[in-house]
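Sample 1 of the test manifest.
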Amino acid sequence: MTTLTRQDLNFGKVVADILCEFLEVAIHLILYVREVYPSGIFQKRRKYNVPVQMSCHPDLNQYIQDTLYCIKPLIEKNEAEKVVVVIMDKGHHPVERFVFEISQPTLLSISSETLLSHVEQLLRAFILKISVCDAVLNTNPPDCSFSVLVHTRESATRNMEKVQVIKDFPWIVADEQEIHMQEPRLIPLKTMTSDIVKMQLYVEEKAQKI
Amino acid sequence: MSRDGWMKKKSNAGDDNGWAEAGGYMAAKVSKLDEQFKLAAPREKLKEGTSSTIFSGISIYVNGYTDPSADELRRLMMLHGGQFHLYYRHSKTTHIIANNLPNSKIQDLKGEKVIRPEWITDSVKAGRLLPYLKYQLYAKGKSVLFTGITFRQDKNVPDSIQTLPQPNVGQNISLPHSINTLHKNVVPNYAKNHTCLQLQSSSSTPQDKRLGHPQPQMNSLRCQNGVDVTINGHAKVLLDTSHLQLAPNEDSSLLRKVPLTNGHTRLNNSALRHEDLSSVAEPSDLFESKTRVPHYKCHVTSIDPHSKSDPYDFPHSPETPFEKDFEAQDQLCVDVNNKVEPQTVKTTSCPSLQEPETSVDGEKAHVLLLNESYHNISDRSSANNKQCFTEHMLSESSSQLQAQTDNLISEFYSHSRLHQISTWRTAFSEYVNELHCKRRTSGTPSFPGKDSLRRMKIQGSCSRQVSVKSCIFHVDMDCFFVSVGIRHRPDLKGQSSLRPGTNPQLEKKYYEEKHNHAQHKEDGDLHRNPSQEGPGLHTNGVEQDATGLSMAEIASCSYEARQAGVKNGMFFGKAKQLCPLLQAVPYDFEAYKQVALTMYETLAGYTHDIEALSCDEVLIDATSVIKELEISPHDLASAIRADIEKKTGCCASVGMASNILLARLATRKAKPNGQYFLKSEQADDFIRDLAVTSLPGVGPAMGRKLAAIGVKSCGDLQQVSMSVLQKKFGPRTGQTLFRFCRGLDDRPVRYEKERKSVSAEMNYNIRFTRIDEAECFLTNLSMEVQKRLKVAGLRGRRVTLKVMIRKVGAPIEPAKYGGHGICDNIARTVMLAQSTDNGQLIATAVIKLFHAMKLQVQDLRGVGIQVQLLDSKNSVTQDYHTRSIKELLKQQGQAQCPKADTSQIARVMLQESSIAHVASVEPVPETSKEQARITTNYPQSHLRLSIEVPSPSQVDRKLNGQISPKQSTFSRPHFPSPSDSPKSSPGKLILQIPNQPENTGIVLELPNFSQIDPEVFAALPKELQDEIKSAYCRTENTSDQLSEVRNPLLQLKQAGAGPVRVKRQYKRKNTSPAKSCLSPIKKQSLTISPANTLPSPIKQERPVERLKTENSSLKQNIPEPTCASRAPPALAGASEWTDIKTLLREWVTTITEPMEEDILQVVKYCTDLIEDKDLEKLDLVIKYMKRLMKLSVESVWSMAFDFIVDNVQVVLQQTYGSTLKMA
């Protein structure tokens, strides 16, 4: 068992890569499962050895990719606390929030468990959980949209303002309206604990969606 | 599928060449082979001249290597009308011939007759078909590993004869032999080693006894024993020369892999069952002889150079294969093979195999009565046999289920005599204890020894002397095992006394084999490649090595032998080189025990101030005796010694000094058979010159360390300051060293010795292949520890797992079979939350440790479990839990009861300091706000209404009986804070005695369950238990108050080693007959819930409603425990989801009404989960509980659940701003 700091092996980057890859898959899948977009734009792919749905709409994909690209440096520095996929109704009131709560240990200890395959198994469980989450969620109202929010740890925002990872794709502070949800109900979906990252996914759902 | 099976079989047969799929090919081949066989048969018969049809109808299939070879067997089958199948055919092959089979094959061939080849050869010899039963390789249903391991009877001899080019078929005469010497070939498989003995019986018929002689893999490459044996004075057996012959084609490395299960089961007779495993080491036990001669003396004749050059004579002498029918046990069948073609023999004993140069030294064969059977030992052969036997064992055990057998460990220990000896000390300690007890009870004990001394003194035979102020005697038997072994054998004594020094005599014991690493390494090569050593290699040089290879350790050697440089612990082979006249004496455990006991009895005749150090070593505090008798220590010592010698026939040495240390050191000077009084004034000089290593507690390791700082003698050590020593060796050891080297020792002679640890360890024969085997083994070993703990009446808290793991690069199979070889020792310790003697708990802990070590199970060579921090069972329950409070309650009980009677709530507060406050409280209003709090001594309690009660464990049963059910509602210990109760016994207790269940607003402060002793609790009256149970369900009523108390409660939860202990008690509770209502304890943090403030009637309805609305929430319940590596939240010690589930289920199903304490624990756990960001598990817990609640009819459970959920929601709300979706 070796204990490494975040600097060693540039481990933060590795973790960020893994997580962003996962988040991309997850976001696509959420959009599909929650029927934010018509299922026609989704294609079945395979990730983590399980079938997932991925949008083939280029703009959407681009948006997701860009978003994640911007998130990555945050995760790398362990500044992202939560990554939230918010599904909003017509009036831009959030009806569902898929919250990926990420916490990374300050000390990374590498054991055999941290073999990526193990992490992959854990992530696969997330994916599977997402794909069945409609069972525990109420149907969303029509014409929903989504956005991705990031809850950062303090001081991270300032850096984000300074460094624009992608030109013309800046972070903006989320509207109070987008954040606030009336009578949220929490549905835990999945929690993973590995040596490199601890993450849990839960959904906050508006009690009365329609 | 079927084809697979077929192919498998075929591959067993050796050549799956891909043709298998062609289907008909094999059939064609087989029939062709049959034809060839038929054709060849007549030709063979013609050639041989002799033939018979004894095997008609028999078809054999030879599996694996056999002796004689498959070809030979084939030929024999041809000659005698049998069939030989090159391939195994299920229906047609009647017998499978094998010398040894791997376990897998044995399993494959279940139900088949697997016979050793000797059957064929013997049948041929006998000229008729012998029943095969005797020759079965293994008996059906053979199960237990150890008992199954026995010697195979010697069928080897005939075999080898048979293998000779010209077999002496039909020339054997079978005659019962009166000599009754029993020699067996221990390991026929290895063996083409024959010890040939020439027997001269009184009838002066020269007979050659051809003894099967075992060939231990490493070393028994020679055996030339010239021995004069006198049996019963009738027969003189001249063991002229015994030759060890190594068959050229032998591949022992191959052989030893093979389980030697053959036919052993038949030997599972009573005598063998006594065989201890560690002294597999002692094959001699197996040499059962029905000889009525207690021992026959073997005189060493071989010193003369003649015999050395003799070996070649042997082939010309007639041979007598001795066989013993072990099944019959008392029949001895001797096949006398009168004619042996010299030529034949030559081939077997080709010169290169023989060791003319061997020092043919003292070969003694002793038959001693041991375990109701006679054992015949001849020293070298027994050494060899032992070796073989060990190998035997291992080869069997390693390939067999070995550690899988459940009773392996207990069997190991119950059979291990060494273990037995080691436990004697305890036994003798107990004996001494008993003496003391007796003295206490019966008043004045009799001290015959003392009395006789007194008489002597009166007669004036003892000189008067002023007694010293303190005098410790250290009595040590002189080379105990040896003296005992030879005490009835004056011949040996005589020898040694006649020629002391020049003809040193050594008696050695085969102790459990251990490895000396250096030795091991140097021998390793030899050992590992026995097959590569052609016969030619076994020349003189090797011979010498072979002697040196005897790995038997010398357990004890006589002083004569010591003079020759032999030391205890030395390998026999080496010792033999040092001292060629070394003789071995077998173990005689009964005698040891008897002598040791006699010695103790003798000593007890003088005083009872005895501390048993071991079976042969005793410390006596002779101060009082000396004072009383006013005799000199010397007189006392000589009296004691004379007494011991008279009674036991063995001599003892006595060291006398003012303290234990010096007494021990003095004993060294006293030995052998002497006494030495180390006066205090001499002590300094005396000790200064001693080597540090002679101090007790200073072993080689510390000796090296000390040498590193330039300390060799105690004088050197005296120069070293205490601080340096303490720095280097730790505070305690340092201090001890500091004192010891000055001859200071203030340890008293302890008559009753406390055990510091209880352990069980096995480092013999540990070969695991799978992790579950290891786990199973650990469990078994834990059970063994449990057994010992129970026997000793102890419980321990600290559990240490010691493992020996093969050192990287060390040979996989050590030189010694079953030995552990070169190992790394690793130890891991875990502290249990509470003392235990439960094997399961220990096992769990140990298995966890084991997994944490992340070891290769295959490399595991030794496992030991040690339990430390012992306290006695009684003190655990009494002192630890109930002592103060229980007594208190007894005292207070009467006072308490009447008051409780009159008041609705009585509050008793017990401080640890044993103060009980009994108070009556005002009737409780529904809001419970007005309740007055009377407890005074409870700083942390914010409860307005509380009754503080002792924990159930502390509640006196009588008291409980006195408290009428109506009056007492609950009793639950409560832990204010850890600091409050240093001993973790409850500092304060709250007793609440409401008089009516309907009475709402009663605050129950439920005690921390970890403090409850379930046994005591179980002993509570039923009503009381019920009330205790019901106490929890009322907690909601008072939760407003509880919320006020939240902080204190949170403090409470920190107390001590809560979870684990709780869990344990929980388990135990379930086993208690009374089914006490303790439930799993949970820690809790309370949050305010509005619902809790509702009066109880309202509250009781709510949960039901809620349940209705919520009961569909369980759609998803996928257990996906993902446990945090760092201190995951745990419920009563459990953090895995499955454990949690079990716990919850048990909680809900076994208890009619939940207790507040438990509920709070659950809430706490849930809160922890939230904090730990493990909402998934939280969800699972909630959902699971909900489901459980639905099963439970009790509304209190619904309320409890409600309460939990409310609290969880509040925390969630605070943390996440949202609440858990429940529907």
